[in-house]
């Protein structure tokens, strides 16, 4: 009995010594010097008692009781430990551990756009005809759990023909070119419309009857695809190198021939030929969230990224992504590493990517793009992707500069990347995609 009781006392003593160290760490600045010294002296005596097996049990108990009484006086909210204190400490420690994992090992990342499609999914749309039935509650729940889907059934605010406001420019040869209006970036209404935790949102305008109806969508969602698939379903199915960009060109050309581009108080408008009724469904679609993945932050501390890798990087040092006020971007991007320092890159006339004078032979997405395997979702590389003074078009051979990487998206026609905003500084590489954890689609599992 004595043996087991002594072992129990040693455990109690260890707990008291740990509490003493916490009090010294967190409350030394608010305790008097005398109170702190008394605590430290008793703690040292308890350490010695723990090593002395010859002392009577009553002497050990007395020493532990003395230290306990001092800790109660000095401990404040740290000692004695209450359920609330214990729970708070557990939460704090869990947060520290999670933060450490995020900072040094694994970082969660959400694919926002479809620049890497079909390798990774950004936000996608499942578009239904306006007169189609909307999903019932059970189906919404299932799709929310498996694909984190949000259903949008938007009613018309007026009655009349639906039109899409567009822009019109004249090219160098005096030809008219039509374009969709750019999205307007703003803030949403917050959590459940409460105004709390407002996030970025994009707004669009659609002409319904004689007035404009504003539609607010999540930031970076391709709402133009919803308009294309809803009002021009045949054109939306065309397999063209620049995908939706080329499909809209077909729509504009046909509308111009048919006299369906009209000027009005809101400027030129593409009339869809579809009629809307106030209060009835105008648009009926689902938004599927982008792939959620974990990024391995460890590997690239020991080996350099290789050409063909997918990699995640910070954008704050990429001047081509500064906003209109010159403020650095704070986003993380994921792209495929098309070229490492010293490699020579060029895109050929048929959409093939040349590295050091040879068409790429790996990895598979780059090979499929170079073959323009449109039946598999790879539409070929394009030599440029927008941008201005930072642009690096690949219609001529370009050598990647030291200390930088050249990033390109697998969905070349819809990827704003190094062709548009310049190279990625090597110091800003975060890591490589490791595993896709949600949604539960065919992408789920190890990242490509």
Salient structural properties:
448 residues; Umud Fragment, subunit A; 3 domains; 8-stranded antiparallel sheet
Question: Quick gist of this model?
Answer:
By secondary structure, the protein is an alpha+beta fold. 29% of the residues lie in helices and 28% in strands.
What layout of secondary structure does this protein have?
Blueprint: H1 2-27, H2 33-51, H3 57-74, H4 83-104, E1 106-110, E2 124-128, H5 137-147, E3 149-155, E4 160-170, E5 176-180, E6 184-187, E7 200-208, E8 211-218, H6 223-231, H7 244-258, E9 261-264, E10 267-276, E11 281-288, E12 292-296, E13 310-314, E14 332-339, E15 344-347, E16 353-355, E17 358-359, H8 364-371, E18 398-399, E19 404-408, H9 418-421, E20 424-425, E21 429-438, E22 445-446
Antiparallel strand pairs: 1-12, 2-11, 3-11, 4-5, 4-7, 4-10, 6-7, 7-8, 9-10, 12-21, 13-14, 13-21, 14-19, 15-16, 15-18, 16-17, 19-20, 21-22
Helix pairs in contact: 1-2, 1-3, 2-3
Descriptive report:
- With 448 residues, this protein is an alpha+beta fold.
- It has three domains: 2-81; 124-288, no CATH class; 299-446, Ribbon (Umud Fragment, subunit A), CATH 2.10.109.
- Helices cover 29% and strands 28% of the residues.
- It has nine helices and 22 strands.
- The protein has helices at 2-27, 33-51, 57-74, 83-104, 137-147, 223-231, 244-258, 364-371, 418-421, and strands spanning 106-110, 124-128, 149-155, 160-170, 176-180, 184-187, 200-208, 211-218, 261-264, 267-276, 281-288, 292-296, 310-314, 332-339, 344-347, 353-355, 358-359, 398-399, 404-408, 424-425, 429-438, 445-446.
- Strands 1, 12, 13, 14, 19, 20, 21 and 22 form an eight-stranded antiparallel β-sheet that branches. Strands 4, 5, 6, 7, 8, 9 and 10 form a seven-stranded antiparallel β-sheet that branches. Strands 17-16-15-18 form a four-stranded antiparallel β-sheet.
- Strand 15 (344-347) and strand 16 form a beta hairpin.
- It is elongated and about 105 Å long.
């Amino acid at each position: 009995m004595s043996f087991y009781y002594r072992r129990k006392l040693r455990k109690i003593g260890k707990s008291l010594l740990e509490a003493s160290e916490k009090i010294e760490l967190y409350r030394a600045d608010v305790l008097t010097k005398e109170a702190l010294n008394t605590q430290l002296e008793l703690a040292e005596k308890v350490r010695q008692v723990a090593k002395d097996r010859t002392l009577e049990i009553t002497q050990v108990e007395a020493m532990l009781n003395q230290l306990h009484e001092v800790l109660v006086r000095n401990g404040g909210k740290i000692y004695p430990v209450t359920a609330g204190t214990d729970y708070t400490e557990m939460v704090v420690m869990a947060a520290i551990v999670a933060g450490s994992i995020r900072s040094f090992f694994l970082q969660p990342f959400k694919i926002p756009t479809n620049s890497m499609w079909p390798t990774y999914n950004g936000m996608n749309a499942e578009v239904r005809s306006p007169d189609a039935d909307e999903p019932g509650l059970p189906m919404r729940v299932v799709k929310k759990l498996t694909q984190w889907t949000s259903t949008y059934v938007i009613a018309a605010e007026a009655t009349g023909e639906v039109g899409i406001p567009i822009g019109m420019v004249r090219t160098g040869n005096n030809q008219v070119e039509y374009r969709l209006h750019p999205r307007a970036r703003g803030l949403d209404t917050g959590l459940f419309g409460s105004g709390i935790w407002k996030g970025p949102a994009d707004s669009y305008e659609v002409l319904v009857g004689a007035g404009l109806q504003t539609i607010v969508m999540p930031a970076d969602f391709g709402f133009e695809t919803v308009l294309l698939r809803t009002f021009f379903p045949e054109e939306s199915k065309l397999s063209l190198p620049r995908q939706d960009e080329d499909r809209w060109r077909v729509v504009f050309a046909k509308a111009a021939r048919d006299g369906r581009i009209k000027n009005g108080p809101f400027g030129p408008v593409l009339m869809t030929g579809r009629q809307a009724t106030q209060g009835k469904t105008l648009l009926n679609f689902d938004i599927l969230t982008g792939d959620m993945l974990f990024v391995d932050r460890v590997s690239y501390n020991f080996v350099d990224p290789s050409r063909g890798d997918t990699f995640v990087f910070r954008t704050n040092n990429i001047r081509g992504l500064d906003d209109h006020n010159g403020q650095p971007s704070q986003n993380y991007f994921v792209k495929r590493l098309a070229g490492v320092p010293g490699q020579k890159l060029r895109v050929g006339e048929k959409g093939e990517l040349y590295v050091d004078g040879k068409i790429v032979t790996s990895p598979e997405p780059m090979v499929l793009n170079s073959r323009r395997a449109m039946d598999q979702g790879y539409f070929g590389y394009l030599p440029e992707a927008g941008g201005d003074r930072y642009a690096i078009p690949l219609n001529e051979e370009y050598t990647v500069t030291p200390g930088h990487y050249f990033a390109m998206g697998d969905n070349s026609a819809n990827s704003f990347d190094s062709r548009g905003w310049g190279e990625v500084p090597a110091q800003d590489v975060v890591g490589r995609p490791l595993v896709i954890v949600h949604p539960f689609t065919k992408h789920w599992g190890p990242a490509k």
